[in-house]
Amino acid sequence: MRYRTTVIINAPIKSVAPYIFDAESYPKWMEGLSSHERLFGSPGQPGSESVFRFEMKGRSMEMKERVELNHLPDEYIVTYEAPGVWNRIRHLFVGLPDGRTRYENDSEFRFKGFMALMAIFMKGSFKKQTLKYQEDFRKFVEKRAAEQ
User: 126-139, pLDDT tens digit by residue?
Assistant: First the structure.
């Protein structure tokens, strides 16, 4: 399954992009995050790995993140793995002439086992959750920009 979501952020690209891998800011915009643990590597650098733990709707979920590419402020690619799910996200930031930033999120999912069956019925909910995180990220960055 693949899809793209886009939001416009009212802040310049150089003040937007660094927050995408800033672990200290994650709890401020990533709803349901209960913990984030760096396993190895430098934050945001290719090959670095982390574990995210979420509590959502009474369920616990753990995902392993691996940074594939960091060409910020323009592009940042990460993969996530959880039982039955592999997900690659390409975060693309485009500076607009008016000083705002277009934030595109290209998501690719691969499923195994039970999750493959569930994905057939849940594509809309995956996209909705991605857009929610993008909107929450947008609000967080815009608030930070207004404070500076």
Answer: 788 899 999 999 99
